[in-house]
Write a structure and sequence with these properties.
Layout (H helix, E strand, L loop, with lengths): L20 E4 L8 E8 L4 E4 L4 E6 L8 E6 L2 E2 L3 E3 L9 E6 L5 E6 L7 E2 L21
Antiparallel strand pairs: 1-2, 1-7, 2-3, 3-6, 4-5, 8-9, 9-10
């Protein structure tokens, strides 16, 4: 028997996406800021550029010289918070709807300015193929 998939209807949506500037609240990289490079929603973790670097030992092969390399490790998403674009301080966020109906993230809290936190532009990992070729309808 395999694992049963559990649906949690009380699980809150994430407000941290790839390209956001975040502040690390706990851990060995506490009080540092960085940009989120990738998000792993299944494991509830984020990778921040230049932070939480771990050493990886790689064996020498014919193709690769080997050695010790620094590899980014993940941080739990609850240990990071978004940075307010106006004050530069870490803040909590909420979603609001503008007059035209678009959904935006807004900084909230005691030290927050209430400014809209812009979403970073979406970047695809692989470019889409836009070539139009012959279609087989047989």
């Amino acid at each position: 028997m395999g694992r049963r998939q559990i649906f949690n209807k009380w699980k809150r949506p994430w407000r941290v996406i790839t390209g956001d500037k975040v502040y690390v609240r706990t851990g060995s990289e506490k009080t540092k800021t960085g940009v989120v490079t990738s998000v792993d929603r299944n494991r509830e973790r984020v990778y921040v550029e230049g932070l939480n670097l771990k050493k990886k030992h790689v064996r020498r092969t014919e193709e690769h010289p080997g050695g010790i390399f620094l590899v980014p490790a993940s941080i739990h998403y609850s240990n990071v918070s978004l940075i307010d674009p106006e004050t530069g301080l870490p803040t909590r966020t909420s979603y609001r709807y503008l007059e035209d109906g678009t959904k935006v993230r807004v900084a909230q809290g005691s030290r927050a300015s209430g400014a809209i936190i812009p979403s970073p532009p979406f970047q695809r990992k692989k470019e889409r193929v836009t070539e139009v070729g012959p279609k087989c309808t047989a």
